[in-house]
Amino acid sequence: MTERFKRISKLMSLILRHKPEAAGLRLDEEGYVPVEALLRALENKGHALTRAGLDELVAANDKQRFAFDESGLRIRAVQGHSRRVDLGYAPATPPSMLFHGTVAKFLDAIKREGLTPQRRQFVHLSPDHDTAVVVGRRRGTPLVLEVDTGTMAAEGHIFYLATNGVWLTDAVPPGFIAFPE
Ligand code: HQG
Hints:
The chain has 181 residues and is of the alpha+beta class. The protein has six helices and nine strands.
């Protein structure tokens, strides 16, 4: 991703996950905004982009964070929301183990309460260890927790798979987490 696309992606994440009103927009129930309205909002914030440019940004985004609807007229973030939206993902069976990247300062709380969504709508789990390292590194020295998602699913916990490979669930009680020594 170019630096320019990175900057615009960051602004789009803010608008499409957390603060649409900061750009004069409103997410619909499924989390979408009209593409035309997003392009106008980006232009107002000094990031003029053509529709073709937006297509390129969406395709180039390092985590495939955004997706158009079938008509191509609306766009949304595929995960990461703090706003309550209905992404419409069907429940899916996770692999037997998933990973969560975090940092040491949260460990005590996670041992007590398990993983909770904090400011977001869901707890986010990574499909592999390396991805979880990248997620944890956003906050400091990464620490990767292994989650026994096979047992969780068997016990009735519901999981969703975002289109970019991130797994979502409401919460992970501490008993399903392998903590480092
Ligand atoms: C921690 C990024 C205290 C949790 C990533 C995390 C992901 C607790 C932080 C996506 C806790 C929340 C989400 C508890 C969890 N007590 N702390 N009980 N339970 N935590 O950013 O998973 O680049 O909301 O470990 O790649 O870090 O933005 O979640 O450290 O997919 O597209 O509280 O965001 O994607 O942080 O990241 P976040 P996350 P993007």
